[in-house]
């Protein structure tokens, strides 16, 4: 799977179950009408249950300039959630999920379905809000290395 080049995103949530953010490379568009996205989350972390419990998530598309943040939210450096979120500026659109202000694009989603497949929980959300930053490069992960496009 390391040969499968993928865009790098931060998926975030906040609500009654608590705030959570994770770097992911397994996300994609499901439908344009209504706009729907999916994200795959490893079930090895019980903290990822917060996405389902909160009923919302934001998919923040990262630029090459966000590599340090991507590494932190992937667990490098062992920072706790507060320290990770303190590394950049955040806002909200509609659901209350954290939107990264410096993201290339951010999709605010209402969770509509989840499904467990092998080691991952697939969360599917309908896009209810969008925020974007114009003119940035994309962050890609391939062969266990970070690249820009």
UniProtKB/TrEMBL annotation:
In Swiss-Prot or TrEMBL terms, this protein is called Flavin reductase family protein
Domain called Flavin reductase like: residue spans: 1-148
Please verify whether the record's keywords include Transport: no
> Which InterPro entries does this UniProt record tie to the protein?
Flavin_Rdtase-like_dom, NADH-dep_flavin_reductase, Split_barrel_FMN-bd
Q: What is its EC number?
A: 1.-.-.-
Keywords assigned by UniProt, alphabetized: Oxidoreductase
* Domain of life according to the entry: Bacteria
Mind telling me which Gene3D superfamilies this protein's record contains? Electron Transport, Fmn-binding Protein, Chain A
MF terms from GO for this chain are:
oxidoreductase activity
Q: Which SMART domains match?
A: Flavin_Reduct
Q: Which organism is it from?
A: Fulvimarina uroteuthidis
């Amino acid at each position: 799977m390391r040969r499968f080049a993928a865009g790098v995103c931060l998926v975030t949530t906040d609500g009654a179950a608590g705030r959570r953010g994770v770097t992911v490379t397994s996300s994609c568009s499901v439908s344009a009408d209504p706009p729907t996205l999916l994200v795959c989350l490893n079930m090895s972390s019980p903290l990822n249950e917060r996405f389902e419990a909160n009923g919302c998530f934001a998919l923040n598309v990262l630029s090459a300039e966000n590599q340090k943040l991507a590494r932190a939210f992937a667990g490098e450096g062992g920072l706790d959630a507060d320290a990770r979120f303190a590394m950049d500026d955040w806002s909200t659109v509609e659901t209350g999920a954290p939107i990264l202000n410096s993201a290339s694009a951010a999709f605010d989603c209402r969770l509509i379905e989840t499904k467990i497949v092998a080691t991952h929980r697939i969360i599917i959300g309908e896009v209810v809000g969008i925020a974007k930053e114009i003119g940035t490069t994309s962050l890609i992960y391939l062969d266990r290395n970070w690249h820009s496009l």
